[in-house]
From TrEMBL:
<keyword id="KW-0223">Dioxygenase</keyword>
<feature type="domain" description="TauD/TfdA-like">
    <location>
        <begin position="25"/>
        <end position="313"/>
    </location>
</feature>
<dbReference type="InterPro" id="IPR050411">
    <property type="entry name" value="AlphaKG_dependent_hydroxylases"/>
</dbReference>
<keyword id="KW-0045">Antibiotic biosynthesis</keyword>
<dbReference type="InterPro" id="IPR003819">
    <property type="entry name" value="TauD/TfdA-like"/>
</dbReference>
<dbReference type="Pfam" id="PF02668">
    <property type="entry name" value="TauD"/>
</dbReference>
<protein>
    <submittedName>
        <fullName>Alpha-ketoglutarate-dependent taurine dioxygenase</fullName>
    </submittedName>
</protein>
<keyword id="KW-0560">Oxidoreductase</keyword>
<dbReference type="InterPro" id="IPR042098">
    <property type="entry name" value="TauD-like_sf"/>
</dbReference>
<dbReference type="GO" id="GO:0017000">
    <property type="term" value="P:antibiotic biosynthetic process"/>
</dbReference>
<dbReference type="GO" id="GO:0051213">
    <property type="term" value="F:dioxygenase activity"/>
</dbReference>
<keyword id="KW-0408">Iron</keyword>
Length: 330
């Protein structure tokens, strides 16, 4: 029999996410349903929770668990990398080269509605690496230089995207439609500038807050994808080739200061350094379930070797307008 809900014991550690070890669980969805409130309370307390020992073996079981914990699940829009779709709301991890890191970021932080809770399920652990690290976004904000924080607070950040068949993700895939008018309506409704080119490519630009306030805790947090979606995180050889072929404004994605000025590699290096100093890591084990407060914690994916199957779900939508943004979306 599973332990009573009041007996859920978590192992905290400074360099690891909170870990809850369970055992002798016959069925993951029913156990999660019984302990839902306690699990969500632990996420609220720790920002991220790794549940170890559940019999999670397939996408269907993870889908049941995800809907139990975080319904309604969100579809992905404005994707920056391909994903496989297992069922509605259940995705593979972003298909990113395994030898390259996915730097710290908050999922869909460039949208006007983003997930409040991220759910990850490891169906197959890699031979080595591949950790999904987490970092306290309030602590990261506190550790950044005050002049840099003040600038981003005043200006926000700007994300520029290029969608086409040759570079990045095609707009048809990113917006889940073949209809240009649907994309244009979405962009207008979501304060995104857009322009089409003669090759049926799409270029977008949007300004968002880099700092918001957590709607539950009231903490100010560093909330964006500046450290990830910028030219300096692209492999140098790949970046040089893309610039040669498409020009400096033709990269699949790039982040700028909110006023449009470039962000230097020194700023990105500083952000990654601060993130690294605040990262908690725990290697995946097959069957692990990880719950991450998407506002309180940034997450990453480290390089890996061997097959890695980690599924993702995004739930509990939160509106940017409810998080006291410091700039008006534009």
């Amino acid at each position: 029999m599973p332990a009573p809900a009041t007996e859920l014991d978590v192992s905290p550690a400074a360099d690891k996410p909170a870990i809850l070890r369970v055992g002798d669980i016959a069925e993951a969805p029913s156990w999660v349903a019984e302990h839902r409130d306690q699990l969500r309370s632990l996420v609220d307390e720790h920002g991220a929770l790794l549940v170890r020992g559940l019999p999670l073996t397939d996408a269907a079981g993870f889908g049941q668990v995800a809907r139990e914990l975080a319904a309604p699940l969100m579809p992905e829009r404005e994707a920056f990398a391909p994903r496989w779709i297992y069922e509605d709301g259940i995705y593979s991890s972003s298909k990113w080269p395994p030898n390259q890191p996915m730097c710290m970021h908050h999922e869909l932080s460039y949208t006007l509605e983003f997930p409040g809770l991220m759910l990850f399920s490891c169906l197959g652990a890699p031979q080595s690496g591949g950790v999904t690290g987490v970092a306290d976004a309030a602590a990261v904000l506190e550790a950044l230089p005050s002049d840099l924080v003040e600038r981003f607070e005043r200006e926000g950040w700007q994300l520029v995207r290029n969608y086409n068949e040759l570079v990045g993700v095609p707009w048809q895939e990113a917006f889940a439609t073949e209809d240009r008018s649907v994309v244009e309506r979405y962009c207008r409704e979501n304060h995104i500038e857009f322009a089409w080119d003669e090759m049926d490519g799409l270029r977008t630009k949007q300004r968002r807050s880099a700092i918001i306030t957590h709607p539950k805790t009231g903490k100010r947090v560093w909330f964006n994808q500046i450290a990830f979606l910028n030219e300096w995180t692209i492999d140098p050889e790949v970046r040089d080739y893309l610039v040669m072929e498409f020009g400096p404004d033709g990269l699949p994605f790039n982040s700028r200061f909110g006023g449009g000025e470039p962000i230097g590699d020194d700023v990105i290096a500083l952000l990654n350094k601060v993130y690294d100093e605040h990262t908690q890591r725990e290697p995946w084990q097959t069957g692990d379930l990880m719950l991450v407060d998407n506002i309180a914690r940034a997450h990453s994916r480290e390089p890996y070797e061997g097959a890695r199957e980690v599924l993702v779900a995004m739930g509990e939508p939160v509106r940017l307008a409810d998080c006291f943004p410091t700039v008006t979306p534009s």
